[in-house]
Amino acid sequence: MLIGIVAVLMFAAVSSVGSTEEASAGLTPVPYVDPVFEDPYWGAASGETWPSTFPAQWASRPMYRVSVAARAMPPLSALGTVTLGVGAFSLGWKIGRVIDTKWLHLSGDIGVRISTTPEFVSWSSLDTFACSASWTANSCQGPGWYARTTSYSYYCDPYAHPYGEYWWGSYGCPYPAWLYDQMEALPGTKIAITNTNERMCGGWWGPCWVKRLTADQMVDLLIHSPAEPYTNQNVDAFTTIAAPQKTSENLQAARDSATSAGVQFQSEVNWALDPGNWDRPNPETGEGGGPRVEWPIPYWYETYQQYLSRLRNLGWLGQATVVDLEDNNGESNFIASGAPCTSVLSGTRLATDAPATFYRNPVALGSGDPSGGPLCGDADVSSFTSDLCSFFDWPWQAAMDTNGQFYSLACEEAWSLVRSLDIFNADGTVDSSVFGRQIAEGEQLKSEDLKEYLLGIDPTLEHWEKWSTPVYDQSGPRPFEVHFNWNPATQRVEYGRGFKVRFRQRFDP
Amino acid sequence: MIVRVTQLRHPHGYEIESHQRLRVGGDYLVVGINVRPRGPTFRIVDDLKYPFDSSLWPLAMFEVVSPNISTIWRVAIEVIQENTYLYIGPEQWLRPGFWDDFLADPPQGIEAKEQYGRDVLHMMAEEGLGRPD
Q1: Same domain for A200 and A348?
Q2: Residue B14 and residue A432: Cα distance in Å, rounded?
């Protein structure tokens, strides 16, 4: 009953202060822009027109080695449909496990490039078999041309376009021709690529040029092209592909091959396509998934608008619902118009379009007790506000009063370390390493406030235990531990009350 | 009371080889005993020590080296949600809300922390142990 009353009061409090909605239309994630992407080569390679002569000057270019911040979606549609099969690593393609599992719905051995073929853009002439320059189309027909790891070949598919193309003075391949680059290296394994952009036709009776993609170029296509909305990407077409033989021998062989070839791919791409920043789509429906952002801690010295701007720059596109706090339930730890708490726990990785509620300080803080407010006080703080760090032996508020920026950063540093350990999951499950020590049993906690909170989640008090992580030693004299309430019955941590960094002793700037 | 660690167990029950706060063969001061339906636990002063860090561990991990009962220990019995709990420890620690105070962020709970420190020192002295570094 009491919980119900509190809930009603809470609702009333929220209702009384009103709320505003802010749309995020027109905002897009900040795409990664690499200087290489602006390179003239890339402009030509991705353009609509193709030179009619062999682009020898391109062939000498070194392959692009890039790293990319994971915030923009690799443009899978640039590749059309990519299929990986059993033992993909042996095919000479640098396809990482992250790509497999995150976007292609494939589960397979880690793919690494083991080919020693030159790494530059090259072009293959198909004039001897395909482009007999009959604009009536079928001349470029030729299914059955397969590329192998050591010998590439291609075919143009005239049926890919509703009509052939006639150029004055020259007939070319049906235009646009589709390139099917099928590689077959091992029985039952292949990679197929379709790419509507890869086409080039020569003059009358001339050769038909098609672009050949090396493994590195394939990866570059994934990395260097502009970001695309996830929903536009075909990630579910091959979910039924047979599972590969996932053996330790195969994995080791892949790693050994990569090592011997000096391939940096795995770390490169695994970093570039940080799985922690992406949600995998539903493997059955292909829905959902996409990039995620790590929800940052609000700074005490920034306004809601500044905080929101920072979130947008991080790629968060979700709808922001703002609850304006009244002066008696604002947070004086934060400046006027600041955003002391949100509905999202800082450090959470959430979808970029996920909505969030922001609790905004009034434009002028009143003289009431802000820390006891019903919203941002004890009841509904769900982000790492400043009071979610504490000292064992010194009031945190005293620290903030002394040097708020320093201690805010110290607090954030501690949480950053915790997040980097990846021991607390968003769903409340934890890594077994979080259990440093049990501090108290649930039934020993007598605070009505806390009991009410915990019992509202699980009504059996004995199901709650107070724990701390091991002590983490940061650089400098700032060892800390994280306190949390653990429910052994559900095997979950409760991230609300009592989830905090506890510095073991005072430290000063 | 002093106990010696005979095995280390993770909270999930499986045996572990090492822990930041305990080591197999190490002797530790018991500062309280909790008897609960889910199993009894010792509250011991562990290796981290600052500031007299204590933690709860299943009795099954230990053997008793010194069975002395501290002179400041008392016994409290509580019935909570139809379960009966028996706590043994310094008298002040048995009062309802002591651990809430102890765990509270300063400036709250200063008295509980100071009481805790005094009691731990007292129990150490009773066992002939010096103040930890």
Answers
A1: no
A2: 11
Q: For an interface test with B, which of A371, A437, A458 has the most B Cβ atoms less than 10 Å from its Cβ?
A: A437
Distance from CA of A503 to the nearest CA of B (A): 11
DSSP letters spanning A134-177:
-TTSGGG--TT--BBTTB----EEGGGSSS--EETTEE-SSSSP
Same structural domain, A84 and A183: yes
Question: Are the Cβ atoms of B20 and A396 closer than 8 angstroms?
Answer: no
CA distances (Å), A197 to each of A77, A175, A339, in order? Answer: 11, 10, 47
Taking the C-alpha atoms of residue A264 and residue A368, their distance in angstroms, rounded to an integer, is 58
Per residue in A109-118, pLDDT (tens digit) is: 222 222 333 2
ipTM for this model: 0.91
Instruction: Give kind and range of the element (H or E) at residue A491.
Output: none
Contact A501, A389 (CB under 8 A): yes
Helix and strand tally (H, E) in chain B?
2, 9
CA-wise closest residue to A299 among A151, A184, A406: A406
- Using a cut of 0.80, tell me whether the model's pTM lies above it: no
CA quadruple A299, A305, A310, A311: dihedral, nearest 10: 100
Q: How far apart are alpha carbons B43 and B32 in whole angstroms?
A: 5
Taking only the tens place, the pLDDT of each residue in B89-101 is: 999 999 888 998 8
Domain boundary among A277, A312, A341: A277
Q: Is A89 left (phi over 0), alpha (psi -120 to 50) or beta?
A: alpha
Listing DSSP states for A385-404 in one string gives: -GGGEEESSS-HHHHHHHHH
Residue at a domain's end among A348, A363, A383: A383
Same domain, A209 and A82: yes
Q: Is B36 on the interface with A (CB under 8 A)?
A: yes
